[in-house]
Amino acid sequence: MSIRSWFGLALIVLAGGILALWYLGDRREYMIAIAAGQKSEQAFRLIKAVQLVTHRHYPEIKIEVFETRGSLQNARLLDSGAVDLATTQADLVFGRRAQLVAELYADAFQLVVRRQSGIKDIGDLVGKRIALPPDQSGEYESFWFLASHYDLTMDELEVFPGTEATTDWLMINGDVDALFRVRAAGDASVLRLIDELDAEVIPIPQAGALRLKQPALQVGVIPEGSYNGRPAVPARDLPTVSVQRLLVAREDVPDEVISKLTSILFERRRELIDLVPLAGSITAPNRSGGTFLPIHAGAQAFYDRDQPSFLQENAEALALAVSIVVVFISGLLQLASRRRKRVMDTYNRELLELAQRARKATSFQALDQCHAQLADFVGRIVQAAERGNINAQEFNLFNFTYYAVEDAIRDREVQMERAERTDAGTRRNSMRRIKGPREAAS
Question: What distance lies between CA 339 and its chain's CA centroid?
Fold first, then answer.
């Protein structure tokens, strides 16, 4: 088999393998586990919406959403490999396996107080009872980070950590004076407390100073009227601390899965907003946000989809390079063709010379030598074809010339045999005339 034939066969096998991988990869199913926090949180509801919309458009991706204690547990589950993705606050310490997918929305530090409690700022919390989110949760850690900045210690506060339902009950029942949560402005649970208790949200200033200690924190605001328009609650824009709620993934989650999930977050946003209006806040990762997490390769591939590729950016240079390569290869092919032509011309001259020697041969011994030279010549031609020095068309041309030379040798053999028989008959007739009639009769 020639080199070209092997090359063609290799291309066919490669193309078949690529098609097989594409077919199998397109039909592969993925099981994805997402830690989403407490069911009452916006993050959990948003991830449930993502689960529903993903099932509509990418049924091969099976998503399981797990309720957890909160961001801190989510981060630990992700780092241990128990889940594939997680929602978490940007100010938490992450393991080495977490990578960014998207920023979901901004959470705000919110301190809800009973109006009759006398609490107007952070310093008024001294000696008061305060309900906190579950311990080992991101919100719980955020409160103590805030308290540390204002020099509030556990000895000065009476804290009651618990679930959302538990802390709501404590607040409504009058067992606590204040409640702390890290939620988006307009959060339904905060609104319920404000409506039922005539509670209020107090400002949390010095966000810029807090950001010096934790770069992931941001200067935030709870807009006027976030919880009621008339009368406005709050009555003015309240300064506070905000932190991004992130969707993060393990680095080993397949790129194609993360790319498809990212496309759901942005290309199917209208469907998500119909289920959870907060989905309108989803944005691409902001590298200056202070998390210092790398972006997952699958998410990055989606974000870069509209950017010109390397081929597009260097189209002119690549076209010039391709042209040069084509000209160079064309020149090489022409040189090779000329070299093969010279080789074939040499072979043809040798064959013609062999044919001439055969026609001029005067003995059968000379013809035998011509046969031997022709056989040796055939061996050289076959070796040249195997090395690729001559192609199939040139080999066919050699066959034509070979048969012509072979016929010339055979024709000369026939001529010499006929001449030999003629000479033998002539000699016998001459002998009869020399002997005479009587001798010939005897």
Answer: 46
The alpha-helical segments, DSSP class H, found in 27-117 are 42-57, 71-80
Boundaries of every domain in the chain:
34-303, 318-435
Instruction: Tell me the pLDDT tens digit for each residue of 118-148.
Output: 999 999 999 999 999 988 788 999 999 999 9
User: Is residue 234 reached through a cis peptide bond, with omega within 30 degrees of 0 on the bond before it?
Assistant: yes
Residue-level pLDDT at 69: 85
Its CATH architecture, for the domain 34-303, is 3-Layer(aba) Sandwich (3.40)
Q: Are strands 158-161 and 129-132 parallel, antiparallel or unpaired?
A: parallel
Residues β-bridged to residue 30: 61
Phi, then psi, of 365 in degrees rounded to 5: -65, -40
Nearest to 102 by CA among 287, 288, 293, 284: 284
**Buried (b) or exposed (e) across 298-308, using 16+ Cβ within 10 A?**
bbbebeeeeee
Q: Diameter of the chain by CA atoms?
A: 170
Beta bridge partners of 371: none
Query: Average pLDDT of 13-27?
Result: 63
Question: Do 261 and 300 form a contact (C-beta atoms < 8 A)?
Answer: no
Beta pairing partners, 239:
221
Closest CA to 32 of 74, 75, 72, 82: 82
pLDDT given for residue 308 in this prediction: 63
Which H or E run includes 85?
A: strand 85-89
- Residues of the chain by 3-state class (helix, strand, coil), percent to 5: 55, 15, 25
> CA nearest 253: which of 413, 30, 74?
30
Question: Helix or strand or coil: residue 248?
Answer: strand
Q: Look up residue 220 and give its amino acid.
A: G
Residue 7, classed as helix, strand or coil, is: helix
pLDDT digits (tens, 9 = 90+) for 190-234: 999 998 988 999 999 999 999 999 988 999 999 999 998 888 999
For the whole prediction, is pTM greater than 0.85?
no
Q: Give the separation between CA 54 and CA 51, rounded to whole angstroms.
A: 5
Contacts for 82 with CB less than 8 Å, ≥ 6 apart:
33, 35
Q: Give the per-residue pLDDT at 168.
A: 93
- The set of residues, in sequence order, having a beta carbon less than 8 Å from that of 241 and lying 6+ positions away, is 108, 109, 146, 204, 207, 210, 217, 218, 219, 220
Write the CB contacts of 397 (distance below 8 Å, at least 6 apart in sequence): 344
